[in-house]
Here is the input.
Amino acid sequence: MFPIMACQEEDITFAENEFLVRDDDIFNITYPKSGTTWVIDILSLIKKNGDPTWNKTAPNWERVPWIENNGIARKLQVSEEKPRLITTHLQRHLFVKSFTGSKAKVIYTIRNPKDVAVSLYYFSKMSSFFDDPGDFDQFVKVFLTEEIPYGSWFEHVKGWMEMFGKDNFMIQTYEDLQTDLRGSVIKICTFLGKELDDKAVDSVVENVSFQSMKENQMSNFSLVPSEFMDQMKSPFMRKGVAGDWKNHFSVALNESFDKIYKMKMQDLKVKFPWDKNL
Ligand code: PPS
Here is the structure.
């Protein structure tokens, strides 16, 4: 399932079958609400060696566009940008076929799924791209299925983790961005083979703080008309913390979530920071 206002079948089919990946492409890949826009701002600052001008003058969807969104794959196909910075929420099995065998790099950002569910719940309330989520417990039950835009969180993660260990694949957690933003920026630079001096790294860190991005209209979606995103209902840059799920999950809901999580993730060898609490 995809939100029809953002993604048309034709665009997804073109991205999957006809889009030609270049070896210097850089992909920012996430399940929604996992840190997509945070990494967009980090990547666009790294590309500009820490100069914030681009981040402050072009919206995130122009700097690191979502390949599955209306008309974007065709535009990117003829783009002369080097490197092309591309975002996607696509599952691995729907992703661009020509990626296989290329040297294009992927940064896969992952977040505690309970926090993803909370963030997506509020986003579904404010955004006309998604159905009204109803009551929180009900929404979490839907979140645990496939019947959700962009598909199951579990399938998304398991699909992309098949690339684990490959030289052109990096896992970034939202939680690491929280606890060590500077260290994470440096790791991303190393992965991309991009050398930034200390001043440039400082500028990246400063310009991607929650507060800076919340105030930057090129990052906070305030340019989107309120009929599509009603930030009076819930701001896009909502809380920006790890662990907000504890304020939303009842004991019973948490237990049933953990049970399903363990069952669905038991075969996955890769472990995440939140797994130790299970
Ligand atoms: S989307 O719609 O999929 O592109 O959303 P995405 O950007 O993946 O996720 C939005 C959540 O990320 C939080 N966010 C940040 N947190 C901390 N610091 C920074 N700089 C930052 N930028 C985005 C944003 O607040 C959403 O999380 P919640 O929990 O709803 O606050």
